[in-house]
């Protein structure tokens, strides 16, 4: 089983990326068929979370999860590292703007996860960039 996980020598960041990749994949699959969890996240405008919106969100989440999974195993690759920063930056921007600008997200148990994971991933990746990448 341990041979399936990222290298221990790479620290904990790859494990975080893998964990969020798996969680995102779960979220993407469930959004193709049901949207009740997403309706909880977007609870101020839950009526706008239709099955179509769920499938669009699922596709976006699946793409971010693939990038995070690849980066977990290629943490020293500058292209993978920069792409994974982009996934957390976009997710954080999306949820923050839905909360503060568009008013569809309210802080609750449904939105806490995406907000915490987005900020955690973004800050962790940006502050540890030089530790993982050798910039020539």
> Can you tell me the overall shape?
globular
Number of helices: 6
Radius of gyration: 16 Å
Number of domains: 1
Reported for the largest beta sheet, the result is: none
What would you note in describing this structure?
- The chain has 136 residues and is mainly α.
- 71% of the residues lie in helices and 0% in strands.
- It contains 6 helices and no strands.
- It has helices at 13-33, 36-41, 51-73, 78-100, 109-127, 129-132.
- Helix 1 (13-33) runs antiparallel to helix 5 and helix 3 packs antiparallel against helix 4.
- It is globular, with a radius of gyration of 16 Å.
- The mean pLDDT is 93.
- Keywords: Endoplasmic reticulum, Lipid biosynthesis, Lipid metabolism, Membrane, Steroid biosynthesis, Steroid metabolism, Sterol biosynthesis, Sterol metabolism, Transmembrane, Transmembrane helix.
- This is Ergosterol biosynthesis protein.
Layout: helices, strands, pairs:
Elements: H1 13-33, H2 36-41, H3 51-73, H4 78-100, H5 109-127, H6 129-132
In short:
One of its GO terms (biological process) is sterol biosynthetic process. Helix content is 71%, strand content 0%.
Labels describing this entry:
transmembrane helix, 71% helix, globular, 136 residues, steroid biosynthesis, lipid metabolism, lipid biosynthesis, 6 helices, single chain, mainly alpha
């Amino acid at each position: 089983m341990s041979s399936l996980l990222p290298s221990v020598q790479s620290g904990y960041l790859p494990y975080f990326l893998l964990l969020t990749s798996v969680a995102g994949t779960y979220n993407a699959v469930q959004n193709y068929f049901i949207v009740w969890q997403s309706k909880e996240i977007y609870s101020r405008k839950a009526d706008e979370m239709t099955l179509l919106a769920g499938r669009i969100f699922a596709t976006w989440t699946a793409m971010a999860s693939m990038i995070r999974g690849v980066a977990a195993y290629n943490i020293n690759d500058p292209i993978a590292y920069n792409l994974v920063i982009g996934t957390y930056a976009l997710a954080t921007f999306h949820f923050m703007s839905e909360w503060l600008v568009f008013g569809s997200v309210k802080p609750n148990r449904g939105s806490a996860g995406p907000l915490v994971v987005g900020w955690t991933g973004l800050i962790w990746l940006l502050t540890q960039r030089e530790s993982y990448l050798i910039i020539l």
